[in-house]
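Working notes for the structural subgroup meeting. M.R. asked for a predicted model of this chain before we commit to crystallization trials. I am recording the input and output together here so anyone reviewing the notebook later can reproduce the run.

Input as submitted:
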Amino acid sequence: MKKIKNQTPTDSNGKFSDSESRPRKPLFTVHRSLFTISWRNIWRNKRRAVITLSSVFFAVFFCTFMKSILEGVWSKMIENTLMSQAGHVEIHQKRYWDDKVIDNFMTMDAATVAALEKTEHVVNVSPRVETFAMASSEHVSKGIAVTGIDPAKESAKSNLSGLVTEGDYLTGNDDGILIGEGLAKYLKVDVGDTLALIGQGYHGASAAGLFPVRGVFRHFDTKVDIGMAYITLPAAQQFINLPDGYSGILISIDDNRALNATIQQCKNIVNPVSASNGSELTADDTTDYDVLPWTFTMERLLKTAESDKAFDHIMIFILYLIVGFGILGTVVMIANERKREFGVMLSLGMRRGRLAWSVSMEIVMMTLIGALLALLVTAPVIWLLEAHPIRLAGDMAKRYSDLGMEPVLPPVSEPSIYATQIIIVIAMTLLTLIYPVRKILKLKILNVIK
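Returned structure, recorded in token form:
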């Protein structure tokens, strides 16, 4: 009996025509079929699906949450500094920033200050007198920083009045002094006692005065709490013997994106001659004032933040490694558990490429589902903690205060943080696909279906 060979249709040239013997399906139909198979495979083994989804979920959750906290801590520190000790824009007499002595203080008339207050985006203009003095009580003495403020403007800027725990806040023409709890304990004084301040005045004159303690405030920054005192602007100007004199003027704005425009408007007001020429101010200009952005005045803090963020990046990288190996372990488990299944499908005629593509789609879909679930859970948690930040206590709170940082963990809710972490986790997942794809392409069918 003759063995009948399979006949394969040929074209006019006598070559085998595979398209006629095995008509190809449309590409969309093929992908839709693979998508359906992959989707069903996910839920065919629910335990495996839950393990994979959990791996991706916790990876995205912890990476996003940690990055949000790290960014939030430094953002909060910069915000607190801008509120209490600096401004988005600062105006000083020329040469003052290089040599912060009283002889380099500035004078400015009330009309110019009022014009600055009317500038677009400006929400607060706080003239200050910042100097140093020896504070003496009946028992002990200590060198402190003395800041002359406008009580109403300072309260609106830094909420200083809300920090008062004993006594009263300063009033407009008050001749009293406001000190921190740490300084009050060190000097052994209470509300109603009198402090003697001795320092240097304008042009080398001696500065001395008696100031009754009006109130005591509590500040999270240990250096401020134990080393700073506030008096009113008129009292400070009288103390240094410089009427209408200021060490600088701090300006707060409502939108940091308008910083450059606000600086230019302030230059137009305080240095109209130079501004009208359209030239940039340099150290050799004959104008009276420097108008400086916060990125310059807080340069040291920003450099510290950058160096600290480098350490944060190392921590995040270590977390990514842990997460990556966790995802890889899950993918390896999927590939090894299903070796027999892969062998059966290949023996039934499924192409290795399509099988690899189907498994890849399966893992990618589980990754996307896990990342989406993590986003839906993480975003509300971060929004809640942003409104009600975690407040530290005990030794950790003290460490933060010693570093001049408020002892809170305020996360930052920014779309870029969510997007970055999801993209990184998905990229790591795609990288782990190398293992199952290679496993399928190199699989020996006879070895796995025995």
